[in-house]
Write a structure and sequence with these properties.
The protein is mainly alpha-helical. The chain has one domain. It is about 75% helix and about 5% strand. The chain has a two-stranded antiparallel ribbon with strand order 1-2.
């Protein structure tokens, strides 16, 4: 002979199963979001390295231009608005 749960017990079990399902879904959503963030972080790291390389190249061009201009005009400060060189 089989016994049957009463309505309250069955409702508790059903509620627990629903709660488990909701928690599992939430965990899955969080894992997906973390994965998306990892991808975004990798993309940003790549952009950062490209920009840092560009910055180093600009810095090198700046040094070369400064050297060239110092050889031609001597040491001084350039007013970039007017092009005037204020020698020191």
């Amino acid at each position: 002979m089989s016994e049957k749960l009463n309505a309250e017990e069955l409702a508790e079990i059903v509620q627990l199963e629903q709660d488990y399902a909701q928690v599992k879904l939430s965990i899955g959503n969080i894992i997906t979001q973390i994965s998306d963030l990892d991808d975004k972080q990798a993309e940003l790291e790549s952009q950062k390295f490209a920009l840092l390389e560009n910055y180093r190249e600009l810095n090198e061009k700046n040094k070369l231009l400064n050297t060239k201009l110092q050889q031609k005009y001597g040491r001084g400060v350039i007013n970039v608005a007017t092009g005037e060189i204020i020698t020191q």
